[in-house]
Design a protein that fits this description.
The chain is elongated. It is built from ten helices and no strands. With about 280 residues, it is mainly alpha-helical. The longest helix is centred in the C-terminal third of the chain and has 79 residues. Helix 6 crosses helix 9 and helix 9 crosses helix 10. About 75% of the residues lie in helices and about 0% in strands. Among the domains are: about 40 residues, no CATH class; about 120 residues, no CATH class. The N and C termini lie far apart (about 115 Å).
Length: about 280
Amino acid sequence: MADDVRDRPDVDALYALDPSEFVAARNALVKELKASGEKDVAAEVGRLKKPSKLAWAVNSVARAEPDLIEELREAGAELRDRQDEALAGGDADALRAATVSRRDVVRRLTRLVVELAGEAHREEAAATFEAASVDAEHGAELVAGRLTSALERPSDLGFLGLLGAAGEGAPPRRRAPAPARRGKAPAPAEPVRIDTKRIQKLERALASAEDARADAEHAVERAEREQEEAAEALAAAQERVEAAERQLDEATDARHAAERAVAAARAELDAVQGN
């Protein structure tokens, strides 16, 4: 929109704050603007909504990873183009590749959001990134890091994306018409019914499974690193124990030598005194 008050640096900075700090900071800014005579701007700022926890996490990731956000938007545009081509009878393989590409970027961004907002927000984060990838207005809000709530997953891309990602890329089969009886026109083929809600649910389950697998792989990598570090620490500790044991042996030998020297000296002293 023209002359968006949020483009002001002092207003834009509000969206980088933790949600718990937003209202107090916004009200303080409103007070400053009124004091400086900017009453109209103050009124606009006062109407700004506080971002939800999920929106704050998404905004934070968007501000920290602008290149990854641009990659998301490019992947979304590519998916939209391939969808249009598929609807016109184009190559399903291209649609499948675009779907996989967009899903990969969404998964990477979602993982970053989960690190900030928690596992409970994984589904909302994925839906938000998917929506922003194919909608210009939502995409602009994401780039600016000014979302205030989660976005709904676009319903017109999910089922086509899944169709493009499944099987050999062939379109869904149509049931063959029953053989026509003599003298009668062949029965029309039954229309293909696509349960888009069920397919979207399966697509979300697939994405969640892929995320879980990626997280498990990372957990294995961390465990292996920790095991290696523990093994190195154990080896170092064993070396220190061995060194300490050597020092103990040397100290024991020195003590025994000192005891023998003391005994010899006392014997010599006794001999002298006895004479």
